Amino acid sequence: MKIYCYISIVILLFSINGYSSSKILDVGEELNYKAYFGFIKLGEVKFRITSSYTEDDKDIYNATATIKSYEGIPLVYVNFIFETTMEREIDGLFSQKFYSTEFKEDKSLTRIEYKFRYNDKVITVKKETDGNVENEKKIVIDENTRFQDGLSIFYHARLQSFSNKNYITPVYINERESSVRYSFNINKDVVSSDLTDYDMSVIKIAGVADFVGIFGLTGEFVGWFSDDDSRIPIKAQFNVKIGSILLELSSYKKKNWKPPKFEK
Hints:
mainly beta; 14-stranded antiparallel β-sheet; disordered N terminus
């Protein structure tokens, strides 16, 4: 009887993990956010899972993000495209390749490429501006470390959000090893926005970024994910060089999904 119960629990856990994974890593999912500094609209961020395939019995996913400030905002100019190739295994999701393309205000273009060669224990880095290679190197890494890039962490955190645990996640960003620390409170919480005419049921994530990202993003952050199997980020607050900004889901494309309603 005990063996039967144990096997049943294991099957249930794997079923939950597999179901949740398919809801989160959903090809065609498109999430659009607006960024606010107080009441000022700063810009937009768009995430999209573009494709998936199987390679060497591993599930591979491709995703993109565009980050762009609105024209006419004083002292703010951001225009990036991120691309990631992520590998999904039983023990998690991690980055295989990452590309960052920055369109600068002076019309120049900087592209950075990371390739994570875990079997060779190196990350290859290539940086070029307007087609001219500025930097090309190999970074030696620990053979047991699997990294997130600046985009894959968005999906990795969602996959981890089904456990009320603390996480320290290795991140490779700005051509250096770093980390992000966060934890989840999976008790029901509630948020409201212009996205729906009802209060949404969410769970809360809080953490600290140990790196400096786009526009000086660093330090403490807090966010709210939909309290369902899709774990859609609804809102988030970050510290950047001008102060605190709010990122809020403004529209989405996701088959058979709508924000869960908060029920008391």
